[in-house]
Amino acid sequence: MFDIRIYPDEALKSKAQKVEEFNQELVDLVNGMFETMYKRGGVGLAANQVGVLKRVLILDLKAGTEEQGKNPIVLVNPEIVASEGEVVKEEGCLSLPGLYRKVKRAQWVKVKAQNLDGEEIEIEGEGLLARALQHEIDHLNGVVFIDRLSPLQKRLALEKFKKLKRNYLRKLAAEGK
């Protein structure tokens, strides 16, 4: 399991590098990311969020349900190649625990990526899947969801997050993390 980097950690502001080697180290990274994401109650996680600057993301929209782990998504070197529509919905992030804000995203996206064997794949999604894909790919580009807010909304969100962060860090300390 990994520690999740908390905003404004430098890894969250850094652009991840393309994965060139598809090996056991990559598989171990993905397995550790899933363990971390499930433990922290998320549905998606980018490698930046655990301090690894590689273009890898995972998703499991059924996390926290009986279906957890039955249809996980692993994308290596993902890139959005098409998008349509627009929708504004609330988002949260494991790197900004407890903070939720409405963010504008595309309603539908098409993503090209590679799987853990290096084979090229495509995934299309709408609704929550589209939102999660965009959110995690943003992470790989050094962007967190509050960067998509207006300057005023971002300032207000960061003021609230300062308080949330103190409480979150106290909770982790109590857990012995």
Automatic annotation (TrEMBL):
GO terms for molecular function: metal ion binding; peptide deformylase activity. Binds 1 Fe(2+) ion. It comes from the Bacteria. InterPro entries: Peptide_deformylase, Peptide_deformylase_sf. It catalyses: N-terminal N-formyl-L-methionyl-[peptide] + H2O = N-terminal L-methionyl-[peptide] + formate. The active site is at residue 136. Its EC number is 3.5.1.88. It holds the Pfam family Pep_deformylase. HAMAP family: Pep_deformylase. Belongs to the polypeptide deformylase family. Removes the formyl group from the N-terminal Met of newly synthesized proteins. Requires at least a dipeptide for an efficient rate of reaction. N-terminal L-methionine is a prerequisite for activity but the enzyme has broad specificity at other positions. This is Peptide deformylase.
